[in-house]
Input
Amino acid sequence: MTQTQTVMHGILLRAARHARRSQSVLLTSAAGLLAAVSLSGQTWLWHGHADLGVNYQNGVWELHIHHGSLGKFEPEEVVLSVDVIAASNTVPTGAVWSFLGSAGSPVWILPQNHDPNLLFLGLGAEELGTGVFTGDQVMLTLESVQGPGQFALYETDPFGTPQLFMNSGDGVDGNDRIPLTAGQHRHAHWAFTAPGSYQLSFVASGTLAAGGGFLASAPVAFRFEVAPVPEPGLAALLSVGAALWFWLRNRAAAGPDNGRCLGTQGSVTRLHPIQSAGIQIGPRPTCMEGPL
Ligand SMILES: [Zn+2]
Output
């Protein structure tokens, strides 16, 4: 096998093992595309608009994922999926791109602009009230990267020039960060230099207005997978179980407050390993305000 074939073979084997381990699978379809699959209690988001959200409320930081059609997920509930085919790119020539590796090297990117074949992932503080932090600004700082390659977060201007915010290729320190503004959100390129499973941990921070001092959250981990999308045939077979899972989850979460936000969830330091016991359908300990 060539090196590329070997890598792909490993990915496919791993995906197959995931599928065998799971007892239930969730599938939804948006605009004809597979949007998400749930394996072993985590929902893999493949398509649609999602944002990594930062909020601070009642003295508690909350980091989460909002998906435009699927709603809100706690960090440990979700896998941010990077289609290993659709996201495949090569590093352009030019010194400004050297942070991604040498020109021509493979790189997998969730892009800043919407590509309907990929998850459209942004970052935001839309729920954060104005006047809470100085300048209405909070910072999301990369704490650590675990995975088979490097990770970089950057935006490109209208001329295509990158502005780099985070890059594990030169180590991870306090300079690997992106500012977020209360009430707003932004989109960036999420780049990975090798296929496989990544755990990115972030810390949110800000200076409270009115002399309240500097505050930082505990590190919060998010799982990214640069992997193949499940084949449509497999997805179709599993769709019935998926619909049932969604119905059960929504029914459990609705509760007597009829979907109102029931409170924040602490500083979200939990990071559960992939659960092998299958889908959890109990009450969902999540703030259930509406979708994006
Ligand atoms: Zn967005």
Remarks:
- Residues 1-32, 253-292 have pLDDT under 50 and may be disordered.
- The pocket of zinc ion is lined by residues 49, 51, 122, 185, 187 (CB under 6 Å).
- The radius of gyration is 19 Å.
